[in-house]
């Protein structure tokens, strides 16, 4: 296993941010950690990267126990934090060169230009980071995380605050990284992002992983069809079915004429477990 999280709990005084989480991630997996703001996603990333120490439990990166001082484990990591880690006064090119020199990348000039081209930023290489759009800055942060050709990549809300076109470009980049055999852990509160990109999704709420499976299996477990209808108090109700025939039979039993039958989504799965929308 590339990543092993064993019975990890993290407390801040009396607040339990992460509650007895266990998770194994194999080489080449693209895992989505899906949950609302405050669910514990960023805290898990900080423990995985050695920035925070678990209150109890252990984390292993490629067999190495993670700690703040474990350089061997950190050498194979690429990290895209939630908030910018760019030097705003440096150009896009200079940001990557600086990161490359920190990692002692040999042919750093070619590596930098390859990454700028991969991120569709070669025409903006001389633009200061402070003058890049939100989407461009995010792509540059991903390029910075790839400068040392890491085996494992952590992305903490990589598309937050990015417009639709920018998000789609980043999705294409992440899908390409997936084909390169990288082991990727993505935290997000965008349902469609996890559904589109990840081969497995961990649903997390209030510091606990409440389910862990492929998006399709999570939907099948709940029921592949969802009926939305108003009850007598004009509140929306949800009913899940294994097939369309069962749903149609049920529709004949309810009094409401205002119902919708559709395919189940990951949002339905999450809402059913937590009884609240992902926002």
Automatic annotation (TrEMBL):
Organism domain of life: Bacteria
Gene Ontology molecular functions: ATP binding; ATP hydrolysis activity
Residues in ABC transporter domain copies: 3-231
SUPFAM superfamilies: P-loop containing nucleoside triphosphate hydrolases
Coiled-coil annotated residue ranges, if any: none
Cited PROSITE patterns: ABC_TRANSPORTER_1, ABC_TRANSPORTER_2
Pfam families: ABC_tran
Keywords attached to this entry: ATP-binding, Nucleotide-binding, Transport
Family recorded in the similarity comment: Belongs to the ABC transporter superfamily.
Name of this chain's protein: ABC-2 type transport system ATP-binding protein
């Amino acid at each position: 296993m590339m990543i092993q999280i064993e019975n990890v709990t993290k407390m801040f005084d009396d607040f339990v941010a992460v509650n007895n989480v266990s998770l194994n991630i194999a080489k080449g997996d693209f895992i989505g950690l899906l949950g609302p703001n405050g669910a514990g996603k960023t805290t898990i990333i900080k423990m995985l990267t050695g920035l925070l120490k678990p209150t109890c439990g252990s984390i292993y990166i490629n067999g190495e126990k993670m700690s703040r001082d474990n350089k061997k484990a950190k050498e194979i990591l690429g990290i895209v934090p939630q908030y910018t880690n760019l030097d705003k006064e440096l150009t896009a090119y200079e940001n990557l060169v600086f990161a490359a020199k920190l990692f002692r990348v040999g042919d750093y000039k070619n590596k930098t230009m390859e990454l700028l081209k991969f991120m569709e930023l070669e025409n903006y290489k001389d633009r200061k980071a402070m003058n890049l759009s939100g989407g461009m800055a995010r792509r540059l942060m991903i390029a910075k995380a790839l400068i040392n050709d890491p085996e494992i990549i952590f992305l903490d809300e990589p598309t937050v605050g990015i417009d639709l076109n920018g998000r789609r470009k980043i999705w294409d980049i992440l899908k390409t990284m997936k084909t390169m055999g990288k082991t990727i852990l993505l935290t997000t509160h965008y349902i469609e992002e996890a559904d589109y990109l990840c081969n497995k999704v961990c649903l997390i709420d209030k510091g606990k992983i409440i389910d862990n499976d492929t998006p399709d299996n999570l939907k099948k477990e709940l029921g592949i069809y969802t009926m939305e209808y108003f009850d007598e108090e004009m509140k929306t109700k949800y009913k899940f079915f294994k097939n369309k025939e069962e749903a149609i039979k049920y529709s004949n039993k309810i009094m409401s004429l205002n119902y919708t039958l559709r395919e189940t989504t990951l949002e339905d799965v999450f809402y059913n477990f937590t009884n609240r929308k992902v926002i």
